[in-house]
Amino acid sequence: MAAAQPFAYAQDKLTFLLALVPYLIDVGRVSVAEAAGHFQVSEKQIRDAVSLIAVSGIPGETMQYQHGDLFDISWDDFDERDEIVITHQVALDDSPRFSAREAAALIAGLQYLQSLPENVDQGVYSSLMDKLARGASESPSQVAVARSDATESLTEVRDALARGRQVEFDYLSSRGSQERRRVDPLRIDSDDENWYLRAWDHAREAVRTFRLDRMTGIAVSDEPVSSSHADVPLGDTLFQGGDDDLTVTIELDPTAVSLLGEFVSNSELQPDAVAGDSGRVRARIRVAHIHGLKRLVTARPGAVTIVDPPEARAEVVRWAEDALARYAG
Amino acid sequence: MPTPSRKQSPPAVPVEERLFSLVLALLATDAGLTKNEILSTVQGYRQRYAVRGDNASLERQFERDKDDIRELGVPLETIEDPADVGNNQALRYRIPRGAYELPADIAFSAEETTLLNLAAMAWREGSLSRESRRALLKLRSIGAETSDPVLGYAPRIRTRDAAFDPLSDALDKHVTASFSYLKPGEPAARLRTVEPLALVQHQGRWHLKAIDQRVGEPRTFLLARIVGPVRLGRTPLEVPPGNHAELALAELEEIWQQNVAELEVVPGTDAAVRLSRRRGARVEGDDRVLVHFTDLALLADELAGFGPEVRVLGPDALVDAVIARLRAAVAAHAGAEAS
Fold first, then answer.
1. In chain A, where does DSSP find H-type helix?
2. Range A260-268 average pLDDT
3. Tell me, what's the ipTM?
4. Arithmetic mean of pLDDT, B80-108
5. Does residue A27 sit in the same domain as residue A78?
6. Which chain A residues are within 8 Å of B334, Cβ to Cβ?
7. Interface of B with A in 108-147 (CB under 8 A)
8. Structural domain count of chain A
9. Which CATH architecture is the domain B15-100 placed in?
10. Which of A130, A324, B226, B299 could tie B293 with a disulfide, CB 3.0–4.6 Å?
């Protein structure tokens, strides 16, 4: 979630104003820094908003926005001490309700999280969803997410992460090789129904991403994790390319770009040409090896094909023919 | 900076200032304000109001602003003058406090706030990421402490289907949605016009539950099979009451329960490890796995990807679908160069 990013839309700026005023009234006096921390916005966003609130109000009886019809703040505190004190308020004192969609977004998010192996009573979830529904100005939109399936590995890995312990497991790479790995767990990521562990791999001395459903024989050790890489930045992209990557030219249906999720993020994908009048685009992507991509291409031959190099094409043919041979006779 | 001369047009009032002033003015009035009163007195409108002129564009601005404000959950009401029914100019607008303000008894504990932060974090793309960010602002407005995000989790719900945002709009505005839908096994996409009931994600896929106007009955559509743009209708529909989302999920779950694929896997391979660890998978011996599924074509895609690591034993339609994909993969990659 992006913190301290300025709001791009007037609707979001308005929501911020409507949320900020009741908070300021309620706390009485607060520093700009503290308010920024509370709302997870920049100090400039707070100052801009307060400056706007201080000159806003209602037309009033004279319809002229007279002094008493406007909010007022203690300008000395604001200008000299960077503190906010509302000294006169109009029209607004309480926090707004959630919209139908805002409530629905949080409720669906909670449904998704319900399978996390946290010590959260299921009653907490239902009471929360009920509060969100009551706090919305209309009944929440009909959006729902089935709880995601937590595998047993999730519980074990979560335990290691929470206690700061190293963990060992057998991991089957998409290349098909099995290897015992020892890692310092850093974070558990999910992507819809898929779960991943981001961890510092001791043998490779680098951060790696592991699919939880490819791990077996998990053992949480008594060894504490090293603190030296606790601050390794973990981006949103699950898989990063290495130096020894293979460059593959693919041709794909533009609507199928999301299929490449594990291989390349949308922003990295540079379609360089349209292939004839098929509406398909060509793109070059970098992969660590062909094995993951060959599985994808065999799964969706109508959506993605490999154009180059020829060895990669041959690899797909071999993979599919070996599979077909199992159905022969 | 020199002060601009008075002859110049007044500096433009920022949009958020106009919207904020409108909300304040409508909250402060019990009797309501007429459109004319609003346009001539409220900050952001009054600067552009022509006393004896044509205010058509300002009126259109006001209409859009009303929609924008309502979308945020602000209950902007219209009151008709009983003595002057049907006269648009006599309509009065206001925001009743009771319906605007969060009920006073709603508060969130630190544990609850932590969960809500995590729930909001799951939406990192599409329109719902904006909605959840706004919800968090409102949550913080009532002073709910922002505890650290639950250490160690980065959940994410995808809304990659291009149809998601327009369909959630249609769902919210209670209008019809029209789109081309490509059903597996059909040669071409067909245009559907539907009345949306719910958007649900099951097994990582977004589905739309909607009344198909052609048959007059509810149907479930996979968003991934919607081709091209979604067009929204204009007239608000009467949506039948009920918890459609919960119902749609329950139906999908039932289909998932009923459908079982029988697979033979090569022990120790990716297919064996991953397929046998799915929810509800049943392992028999060291090479048989029974898995549930909702959609045969999607499962066939996935199984074809496992190549020789898996052989489908049944149902027959799934065997055929996997073989067809494998043949297509061979055909598309045979020869040194693509055409």
1. 10-27, 32-39, 43-54, 75-81, 100-113, 122-134, 152-163, 290-299, 310-325
2. 55
3. 0.89
4. 89
5. yes
6. 313, 317
7. 108, 111-112, 115-116, 118-124, 127-128, 130-138, 140-143, 146
8. 4
9. Orthogonal Bundle (1.10)
10. B299
